Amino acid sequence: MSINHRYTFVLFCCIVVSLAAEAKHSVAREWNEAMMKAIRKDYARPPIQARNLFHVSIAMYDAWAAFDAVAKTFFLGKTFGGYTCSFNGINTPANVQSAREQAISYAAYRLLKHRYQRSPAVKDAYSRFDSLFMALGYDTLITSTDYSSGSPAALGNYIAQQLIQFGNQDGSNELFDYGNAFYKPLNPAIDPVKFGDSSITDPNRWQPITVGTFIDQNGNPIPVKTPPFLCPEWGNVTPFAMTANDRTTFKRGGNDYVVYHDPGPPTMFDTLNPMNEATDLYKWTFSLVSIWQSHLDPSDSVLWDISPASVGNVHQLPTTTEELKNFYNQKSGGDIGKGRALNPKTGQPYSPQIVPRGDYTRVLAEFWADGPSSETPPGHWFTILNYVSDHSLFQKRFKGQGAIIDDLEWDVKAYFIMGGATHDAAISAWGIKGWYDYVRPISAIRYMTDRGQSTDSTLPNYSKKGIPLIPGLIELVQPGDSLAGEGNKYVGKIKLYTWRGHYHIKDPKINTAGVGWILAGDWWPYQRPSFVTPPFAGYISGHSTYSRTAAEVMTLLTGDEYFPGGMAEFVAKKNEYLVFEEGPSTDVSLQWATFRDASDQCSLSRIWGGIHPPVDDIPGRKIGMKIAPAAFTLAEKYFTGQVVSAQKDPSSDRTLHDWKLSQNYPNPFNPTTTIAFGIQNSSFVSLKVFDVVGREVATVINELMSAGAYTRQWNAENITSGVYFYRIQAGNFIETKKCIVMK
């Protein structure tokens, strides 16, 4: 069951609907598909996969644009993120198409093999990359980067080499497997198997999760019981189209947190004065998550029309607390969208699709969790892009205008825009996550319910810090209740009418947990018990940010807000699709009229899945609406040749604008080397040396330094010969260089 359903989306798009044209794909598409398959077996790290997708899209676009008379390259011959990639041009070959395909293939092949060398499925990924490369007729032994001869293969190798070197200093900390430089969680970890949560110290801050065996959303076991926060310093990564005007730098614990498109803080729980408007909103937004999980039972007799006739078509997002509360239906679920009367492409009404609400919500939660084939949210939208590109009713006209362009041009441009936009979405969302460090529902719900109820001081278990009571949904355990426990030890405790959780599922292939009353201390999100909730803060929703960004890109790229034919859908087959438990109880077709409808549905899915409250959702959607047009506008300038100089690097306005780490002298060295660097403004500077597995072997500098030029010597007398890396950090600037010790 859990294996077969992963390919339903592709089968549906290409066979069931019979709308996608069967055609030979471009070489860019072939490499994109190979990459998507690698992502599906790699670690589920959305911002890192977004960066990979972007960098590969740069490689393919520049390999195409290098041979174009109008379009300008983005990376070749430009300075990007403080890194200058020199390029002297290349002679126009007799067969431009062949040269482009060759350069694209060598660039993608080399870069992909570098980026997925640490994948848990590296053998599978390498086999796929090698097979495609050789099937295209190329020679793996051609490794030269000297493109001056006019060799497209050498150009591709050069592009990959330069992007790899750029990636070593773009703020991602790739050299050390994207590890965190300074972030530390404030709260101790929660063990969700234990009743309640007495360990949390601040209900506004993220809490790590401890599980027996943590398995990520791609099914990969992670060899730690308490996974660290994923990429909380991602705001330091070089963006695509976001600028210094979009950036705010905050400071905590002496460290800089870079945030793009700062939405301001989420609603906070005031532990000193919990009876105020902000805390009331906190209680409402997290209570809604528990309430919506009462919608996960297909046997509750509630039927919904989930066709575009009844859902979707949201025109305005809330801007006030009152509008936010009215936007979501707290008791019944869903938002203010009322659907559409007609399909504008056919002129006919959308056909109703009546299904149990509990099937719809469960399919929604699992489908959007990581994509239909575990390609993470940014990869999911590349899947949707490819589906639209293949559709028999779709014509490849840029912005829906002008002449039809060939498959290769369409793909490299579409991937470049989508890659740049979703990369910026990742930087914005994860920068916000790292700085605001906001709590997840599992922690907030257990925190409030541990403290009692805040509705009536005359009732038992009253606390101003408790959760509001809602008859039929959030109540107190009474004497004689089936949840009262031995000796009535749970009488007066909070109980929730919600999804009952994994204690009620012996075998997810044949069992469902259903909905009913549970002790609040046993509340779980609708996720795998080995996953529980993503290992990073909630605010803002990455899914909302990615999806709205990508939906706006698709609207701009195609010149149409509607999917081809006015509707797209995904079929979840009866008792074959769900992974967390058995189901759905009937065939369910998720349907979307527009790209925005799909994005909005994705946002709602995270609430039903127990992962995000409403306050995480709306800011992500709004930021996506800013990121997409900026990325699209910048990319179009390259396509039309309007970019005549290197784009302004947003990091150039940072404190350490002119900070540069010079090459060490000599290299290789024995036994000392001199490291030269410059600082524009006063800053605390740390310079450390690491071996190839990331172990620190020396600290050269760890002090506050004034502006100026400096040199420091590192003595390697006590270490063995080999390859090492030294990394210097000053404020939010980090740079790493390789050095070789020979004795």
Written account of the structure:
This protein has 743 residues and is an alpha+beta fold. Among the domains are: 453-515, no CATH class; 655-741, Macroglobulin (MG2) domain (Immunoglobulin-like). The protein contains 15 helices and 20 strands. It has helices at residues 8-16, 27-41, 46-65, 96-115, 122-135, 152-167, 277-292, 321-327, 357-370, 376-390, 407-436, 441-451, 542-558, 595-608, 614-639; strands at 79-80, 83-84, 214-215, 221-222, 247-252, 255-260, 303-305, 354-356, 474-476, 494-499, 515-519, 568-572, 588-592, 660-661, 672-679, 683-691, 696-705, 708-715, 722-730, 733-741. The strands form 8 sheets. The chain has a 4-stranded antiparallel sheet with strand order 17-16-19-20, with no helix packed on it. Strand 16 and strand 17 (696-705) form a beta hairpin. The longest helix is centred in the middle third of the chain and has 30 residues, at 407-436. The termini are far apart.
SSE map:
Elements: H1 8-16, H2 27-41, H3 46-65, E1 79-80, E2 83-84, H4 96-115, H5 122-135, H6 152-167, E3 214-215, E4 221-222, E5 247-252, E6 255-260, H7 277-292, E7 303-305, H8 321-327, E8 354-356, H9 357-370, H10 376-390, H11 407-436, H12 441-451, E9 474-476, E10 494-499, E11 515-519, H13 542-558, E12 568-572, E13 588-592, H14 595-608, H15 614-639, E14 660-661, E15 672-679, E16 683-691, E17 696-705, E18 708-715, E19 722-730, E20 733-741
Antiparallel strand pairs: 1-2, 3-4, 5-6, 7-8, 9-10, 10-11, 12-13, 14-15, 15-18, 16-17, 16-19, 19-20
